[in-house]
Amino acid sequence: MATASKPVLSVGIGGLGAIGLPVARRLVAGLPGLSLTAVAARDTGRAVARLAALGISVPVVSLAELAQRADIIVECVPSHAFREIAEPAIDAGRIFMPLSAGAFLEHFDLAARAEQRGARIIVPTGALLGLDAMRAAAEGEIRSVTMITRKPPGGLAGAPYLVQHGIVLDGLKAPLRVFAGSARDGARGFPANVNVAAALALAGIGPDRTQLEIWADPALDRNTHRIEVEADSARFSLAIENIPSLENPRTGRITALSVIACLRGLAGPLRIGS
What global pTM score does this model have? Predict the structure, then answer.
């Protein structure tokens, strides 16, 4: 008996940096049920050249136009451009996959808008682990969530919070705690660094109750995250050391792989995990 073929889902990627480019490469190499149909980037000429060098032939369009080209829109853009890619995708009823979870916190009205427009917002796990456990615990009562992020100083350079508070990391000889507060405030002050904290907050008790510490540590060559959770169903601790991307030390290499795994789960016949 013949089986009906499953429609291929088209994918558009906004941003061709440390996350977007590896995802584009994997899609073109072949992910069952998925097809790369368009990309968008701030520097169109550079994007065209990078794609050509990889033998990838897809249109380079504006962020807004991506929504007319694809079923799934993967967002990998700077936080200031978040709404420029998010609104058209949601208004068109697409599957919107934001990597800038911190920016999503600042534009959370889009969640209600997605419900009205029939869109779906799927936040990938990114450089984190344990979101399944967090989501499960959130079905009960979570009492507290604390996340401690440690990064090499170069991975935090240029963060708005550091600039505003005159914190200089050049020549740092010992670990320095540069932030302690809520995940919401951390996401605002370090928009390129702690999307993991925003994702954790969205899965658990929210950005105002989730506590965050950020440390600059010159002895590290990896981005590390430790999470402590107290809930009525379980007490758990999670730790991960992510290898920074060569292109952008603020981003762990595993983040792009997380997007690929998320896309595979949307199109594949088998999905593991809640």
Answer: 0.90
Domains and CATH numbers, the chain: 9-127+254-267 (3.40.50.720), 131-249 (3.30.360.10)
What b-and-e string marks burial along 191-208, b requiring 16 or more CB atoms within 10 Å of the CB?
A: bbbbbbbbbbbbbbbbbe
Task: Express each pLDDT in 45-80 by its tens digit.
Answer: 999 999 999 899 999 999 999 999 999 999 999 989
159: CB partners within 8 A, 6+ apart? 189, 190, 191, 192, 193
Residues 6+ apart with CB under 8 A from 165: none
Contact 196, 250 (CB under 8 A): no
d(CA 43, CA 116): 33
Rounded to the nearest 10 degrees, how much is the dihedral formed by the CA atoms of 241, 75, 8, 127?
Answer: 10
**C-beta of residue 224 within 8 angstroms of C-beta of residue 149:** yes
Torsion angles phi and psi, residue 160, rounded to 5: -55, -40
Count of alpha carbons within 13 Å of 31, Cβ hemisphere only?
24
Q: Count Cβ neighbours within 10 Å for each residue of 49-59 and write b for 16 or more, e otherwise.
A: ebbeeeebebe
**Is residue 51 within a helix (H) or strand (E), and if so which, with residue range?**
helix 44-53
What is the rounded distance in angstroms from the CA atom of residue 87 to the CA atom of residue 117? 11
Pairwise CA distance, residues 52 & 199, whole Å: 34
Task: In whole angstroms, give the CA distance from residue 202 to residue 183.
Answer: 10
Using alpha carbons only, what angle is made at residue 86 by residues 193 and 260, rounded to the nearest 5 degrees? 60
Q: 206 φ, ψ to 5°?
A: 95, 165
**Interval 194-230: pLDDT, tens:** 888 999 999 999 999 999 999 999 999 998 999 999 9
The residues carrying an active-site annotation are: 225
